[in-house]
Design goal:
Layout: H1 14-79, H2 82-90, H3 98-116, E1 124-129, E2 134-136, H4 142-151, E3 164-173, E4 177-189, E5 196-205, H5 206-214, E6 222-226, E7 232-235, H6 249-252, H7 254-257, E8 258-265, E9 270-277, H8 279-326, H9 344-403, H10 407-425, E10 431-433, H11 434-451, E11 456-462, E12 470-472, H12 477-488, E13 495-504, E14 507-514, H13 521-524, H14 538-552, E15 557-563, E16 567-575
Parallel strand pairs: 11-13
Antiparallel strand pairs: 1-2, 1-5, 3-4, 4-5, 6-7, 6-9, 8-9, 10-12, 13-14, 14-16, 15-16
Helix pairs in contact: 1-8, 9-10, 10-11
Length: 580
């Protein structure tokens, strides 16, 4: 049993369509504004967070640089202190007298702490004479000091005559136990000679270094100072010290979960790395998004009301015009519109528009006819250019061949001339096969070869299977004629024309190559656009190129390459089509 087809069509009035599409457009605009605003707000907040984070990191770098410079200056100043110089120079060995040892230590304490009072970050100072005498100004024994250096493979020979930072190192303090400390070393050089008198060591607790930046950074941020090997040397979390920061989860997820800012401390090549979780930025965005949703809902409700009111007002006269048009009888000429209030304006608009469309169509038709006539004129002009002078020259050649008793050549020349004109006429058809076009060129080159036997060699080769495809008639002949008259004849010596046709995917390429005089560089760029008859191109190339584009489309036509004095090659590109 055949099931009846049931269709449901919702017929909307122009009023409801206007309301629907205007409301839809407003919703789309509001949503687009909301999305764009959200993206811009997020971008702005992120950029501001990065800017603020960068300022924090720069401040930490500056403060750390000041700290390092301050401690380095202290070490430099202490190493040239006269009291320290005298003790290390004249009391290298440990004094035998207890009183003498006490007096030397008190002198060192006064010298050290007179200067260390200016630098509260130094926890302790150790002096080591060249012979190994150990003077501790804090709570670190010689044994703990030596064990720490040995454990970290630090040799006395590694210590140079400028402040060098080691650490953090685990060193035992006699009061509080093992601590993480930085040890800053420097040789003490005799200021009057190049002799090394001893060594000075300043000990700075890592906790004091981290306290130097702890109050600067954002409470949600995590800041680390790493050395050149990316090992953490200072952090609020002491359990992370000595670890490679690249092994931490926070570093592995930095692109997804954190905004990271890095800046190098130039003086010692440390890096300050600050990580701010993106989730804290998202919480700010959630507040903005909630506000935008509320505003959007209000805007949509208001837009619906306004859209309906505007739709009613705008479509009211159009509705009245539609009622009036139903009563209009174009056959009987009844244009009475008394029931419609002021319908003349819309009626006039419709009538004038129809008249305009009719006129435009009429003009377009005229333009198309004129263009067709112009193309036909150009093609016939090419044919006309070929026929008179070529036929005259051919007849002169035939007479000359008969006159010198070359009857066979004269007969062959006559057959080639007949074949040439037979294909050229081709029953008035503008489109022929590639095989016919190549036969035409074969006959043409044979005749020109007889005329210019001392100047011209030619060769035609290619895939014979391509001969079935179509090409506009007399596409190749003007190219070959140009090659002969503008390329080979001026060269004064025997030259070659090579025609090669081959497949290129769905296209056919036909190369017309000659090793004649070529085209000047300044002419080459305009050879396909210049409509004037001129050197190597002119009307012929321009017209052929346009014909190919008109027949096959803008992707097809001619391509010209040349080197002046060497060669010229014109490549014809056409599609593989067996009919128009």
């Amino acid at each position: 049993m055949k099931v009846p087809h049931v269709s449901f069509k919702i017929k909307l009035t122009i009023k409801h369509r206007f309301f629907f599409f205007s409301a839809l457009n407003i919703i789309v605009v509001i949503l687009a504004i909301a999305v764009i605003s959200n993206v811009l707000f997020e971008k702005t907040i992120t950029e501001k967070a990065k800017m603020f984070q960068q300022r924090e990191v720069s401040l930490v770098c500056n403060n750390m640089e000041l700290l390092v410079n301050s401690i380095n200056d202290y070490i430099l100043t202490l190493s040239v202190d006269s009291t320290l110089q005298d003790i290390l120079k004249y009391h290298d060995e440990v004094p035998i007298s207890e009183e003498e040892r006490y007096n030397i230590k008190m002198k060192l304490i006064r010298a050290v702490y007179a200067k260390s009072a200016l630098n509260s970050y130094i926890d302790s100072v150790v002096i080591l004479s060249k012979s190994g005498t150990f003077y501790d100004m804090g709570m670190y024994s010689k044994e703990n000091f030596s064990n720490t250096f040995e454990k970290n493979n630090i040799q006395m020979s590694d210590i140079i005559n400028k402040p060098t930072w080691y650490g953090p190192l685990e060193m035992k303090n006699e009061l509080v136990g093992t601590e993480n400390v930085f040890v800053i070393t420097k040789q003490v050089m005799d200021i009057w000679s190049p002799d090394v008198l001893g060594y000075v060591f300043a000990i700075v607790k890592e906790s004091k270094v981290s306290g130097f930046y702890r109050d600067i950074i954002e409470k949600n941020a995590e800041l680390y100072i790493v050395n050149e090997d990316m090992n953490i040397i200072s952090s609020a979390d002491k359990s992370l010290l000595y670890q490679d920061i690249r092994d931490l989860e926070i570093y592995a997820n930095k692109k997804d979960a954190y905004i990271i800012t890095t800046e190098q401390i130039p003086i010692n090549h440390w890096k300050v790395m600050d990580f701010v979780p993106k989730r804290y930025l998202v919480s700010e965005m959630d507040k903005i998004n909630l506000s935008m949703v509320n505003i959007g809902i209000i805007a949509i409700v208001v837009s619906f009301v306004l859209s309906y009111a505007i739709a009613s007002r705008v479509t009211k006269p159009i509705h009245k015009l539609a009622v009036a048009m139903k009563s209009f009888d174009c056959i009987n000429g009844n244009s009475h519109t008394t029931e419609v209030r002021s319908p003349q304006e819309l009626n006039l608009l419709t009538r004038r528009f129809n008249q305009l469309v009719d006129r435009v169509q009429e003009l377009m038709h005229q333009i198309e006819i004129e263009n067709e006539r112009k193309r036909d004129y150009e093609f016939r002009l090419i044919q006309a250019q070929i026929k008179p002078h070529f036929l005259y020259n051919s007849l002169e050649t035939i007479i000359s061949l008969i006159g010198i008793s070359m009857k066979d050549n004269a007969m062959q020349y006559t057959r080639s001339l007949g074949n040439f004109y037979r294909i050229s006429l081709s029953n008035g058809s503008d489109i022929i096969t590639l095989k016919e076009e190549l036969d035409l060129i074969q006959n043409y080159l044979y005749m020109q070869g007889i005329r210019y036997v001392d100047k011209l060699n030619y060769q035609i080769e290619g895939d014979a299977a391509l001969g079935k495809y179509i090409i506009p008639k007399l596409t190749l002949q003007p190219l070959v004629e140009n090659a002969i008259y503008h390329g080979i004849k001026p060269k004064k010596i025997k030259s070659d024309i090579r025609i090669k046709y081959y497949s290129d995917a769905d296209d056919i390429c036909i190369s017309v190559y000659d090793n004649g005089v070529g085209i000047r560089k300044e002419k080459l760029d305009s050879v396909l656009t210049d409509q004037k008859t001129d050197e190597r191109g002119g009307f012929g190339l321009h017209s052929i190129n346009n014909r190919l584009k008109l027949v096959f489309g803008s992707s097809y036509g001619l391509a010209v390459s040349s080197s002046y004095g060497a060669y010229t090659e014109v490549i014809v590109r056409i599609p593989k089509k067996d009919r128009v």
